[in-house]
Amino acid sequence: PETLNHILQKCHRTHGRRVARHNGVADFLKKGLESRGYSVIAEPSLQGENRMFKPDLVAFRHDRTIVLDAQVVTDGHDLDRAHQSKVQISDRQDVRTILRGFQAHENIEVVSATLNWRGIWSFQSVTRLRALDVLSASDSTVISARVVSGGVSGFRTFMFHTGFHG
Q1: How do beta strands 108-116 and 46-47 pair?
Q2: Model confidence over 47-59: pLDDT tens digits?
Q3: Given the DSSP bridges, would you call strands 46-47 and 64-73 parallel, antiparallel or unpaired?
């Protein structure tokens, strides 16, 4: 069915807009990390023991290394559970060993930026990002607004491609 959730989260016609929405979140976070003194690598390929890991961002600073993955999830998901699942992907000893090979700081934090398509944050995600000074309260509001705006863009794309011109 062509529900708003389907259009914004699953429909093949809006895939490009979903990717752009996700990348907008990651880019905003990257700029924020850089302004806080981090050197940031976007989408590094990290070869683990059994698979390749490709987090959205790895940020290096003298006192900390941050591995960050962003995600915009669908309705019906427990946001904190989605956050925990995303963190578990990269929070592994083999990934930490690889990062130490890049002269990463021993203090490696693995976090996620997890929101739903309505711009609502996982409490655990936003709390951790604020505690690490990756985000301010106003930053999280801006990201929420951008996620919703990206959804509007996806909806417009869907309406255009289905031939509806109202």
Answers
A1: unpaired
A2: 999 999 999 999 9
A3: unpaired
Give 38's pLDDT tier (boundaries 50, 70, 90): very high
Q: What is the tens place of the pLDDT at every residue in 64-114?
A: 999 999 999 988 889 999 999 999 999 999 999 999 988 778 899 999 999
DSSP code for 147: H
Cα–Cα separations (whole angstroms), residue 115 to 61, 145, 165: 26, 11, 31
Structure tokens at 144: 């929420």
Q: How many CB atoms lie within 10 A of CB 42?
A: 14
> In which element (H, E) is residue 66 found?
strand 64-73
Q: 63-101 burial string, b = 16+ CB within 10 Å, else e?
A: ebbbbbbbbbbeeeeebeebbbebbebbbbeebbebbee
Domain range list for the chain: 4-161
Q: How confident is the model at residue 17 (pLDDT cuts 50, 70, 90)?
A: low
Q: Is the dihedral of CA 10, 12, 17, 19 positive or negative?
A: positive
Residue whose C-alpha is closest to residue 38's, from 105, 110, 88: 105
- 45 in helix, strand or coil? coil
**Is 4-161 a CATH 3.40.50 domain?**
no
